[in-house]
Design goal:
There is one protein chain. The protein has helices at about 5-20, 45-50, 80-90, 105-110, 115-125, 140-150, 160-170, 190-200, 220-235, 245-250, 270-275, 280-285, 325-330, 345-350; strands at about 30-40, 55-65, 70-75, 95-100, 105, 125, 205-210, 240, 255-260, 265-270, 335-340, 340-345. The chain is α/β, with parallel strands linked by helices and about 350 residues long. Strands 6-7-8-3-9-10-12-11 form an eight-stranded mixed sheet, sandwiched between helices. Strands 2-1-4-5 form a four-stranded antiparallel sheet. Helix 7 (about 160-170) packs across helix 8. The longest helix has 18 residues, at about 5-20.
């Protein structure tokens, strides 16, 4: 075999090796998720007033992947559908359309499958936004954190339960003596640590965090975020992090999805999104952030108001607020396309008009 034949043989062998290599499947895969709510007035009112039913598209065509051990953050203005996505992933809402696969399984099908569904729910847990509302004020901390362990029959003995709760509290910076206290005896940051300990009780792999620091003071936010980052490194946790605070998102996430009126308009790695944002809405959000080195420079606020989700605009939902709008934007809705190393839904970016 001459050298040329040997080179060809090597190239073919390498190509076949790449083709036959097992592909790493993301732990979390959401595809075309949609959720519509019926917000119509009661039937009698509709009949008397001659009004049709009203349907609200809270989430529409949302797709993303999250690799194991990574964090995807969803950001956007209030009412854009971030929390609805969170509730879809943990099974609190049924999707109107689309699917959510976890570790290769269709989660919304498995959730209904008895013991198999309970096993999957142990692997997916949620941290709620308000630590004051998410903890039962009549229970002591031992009962709050130990409830998932009892419900899933992971621990039955009282002594073993106490020891496990003490370990969980210690992992979030609290002490075993806190087990006998009630939620009202703790600060907001401490309550959120209790919520995190409860979420970790079943040893989950995927945590859905719905604005877990928005109700806390800035200094306390940093403490809670550091705890979450440390836990992620130690346990190889995967996070979906819901937030409207871009400074927090930049600190915790590997990927960022920007949502507007129920749809993802830009999806990119964190560093790339903050350094070279593409979608006009993303640019406006980032430009509205105060920067220390830009003291005295006039900042561009996010113009206009979010349209009524019951009557969204035709074409691109952002076009009434966009400085780069043209006729195509008014009549044709953009889809999320891979462009310049990111995914973006914008005609202006696609046509290189920005």
């Amino acid at each position: 075999m001459n050298s040329q034949q040997n080179n060809i043989y090597t190239e073919v062998r390498e190509a076949l090796a790449v083709r036959d290599a097992p592909q790493r499947v993301p732990l979390v895969q959401a595809y075309d998720l949609a959720r519509t709510f019926d917000v119509s007035p009661p039937l009698l009112n509709r009949v008397l007033e001659g009004k049709p039913r009203q349907m609200l598209r809270a989430v529409d065509e949302v797709s993303f992947d999250i690799e194991k051990g990574q964090t995807l953050a969803l950001v956007g203005e209030s009412g854009c559908g971030k929390s609805t996505v969170a509730r879809l992933l943990v099974g609190l809402y049924e999707p109107t359309r689309g699917s959510f696969h976890f570790d290769g399984q269709n989660a919304h099908v498995v959730f209904k499958a008895g013991a198999e569904g309970r096993a999957l729910r142990r692997r997916i847990q949620m941290i709620f936004q308000d630590p004051y509302a998410s903890l039962n004020p009549r229970w002591i901390v031992e009962d709050i954190v130990g409830e998932p362990l009892r419900e899933h029959a992971l621990i039955t003995g009282r002594k073993e339960l106490g020891e496990r709760v003490a370990e969980l509290l210690h992992s979030v910076g609290l002490s075993a003596s806190d087990m006998e206290k009630y939620p009202h005896q703790f600060s907001g940051g401490q309550r959120q640590r209790i919520s995190i300990a409860r979420a970790l009780a079943t040893a989950p792999e995927f945590l859905v965090c719905d604005e877990p620091t928005s109700a806390l003071d800035v200094s306390v936010q940093a403490q809670v975020l550091n705890i979450m980052k440390n836990l992620q490194r130690e346990r190889e946790l995967t996070y979906l992090f819901i937030s409207h605070n871009l400074a927090v998102v930049r600190h915790v996430s590997d990927m960022v999805g920007v949502m507007y009126l129920g749809r993802i308009v830009e999806l990119a790695r964190t560093q790339q999104l903050f350094s070279t944002p593409q979608h006009p809405y993303t640019r406006m959000l980032l430009d509205a952030i105060p920067k220390m080195h830009d003291t005295g420079r006039s900042r561009t606020p996010v113009q206009g108001e979010v349209p009524n989700p019951l009557n969204p605009p035709n074409g691109c939902a952002f076009h009434p607020r966009c400085p780069h709008v043209n006729e195509r934007c008014r009549v044709e809705r953009p889809i999320l396309l891979p462009l310049r190393g990111i995914q973006v839904a914008c005609h202006a970016v696609e046509e290189d008009r920005i």
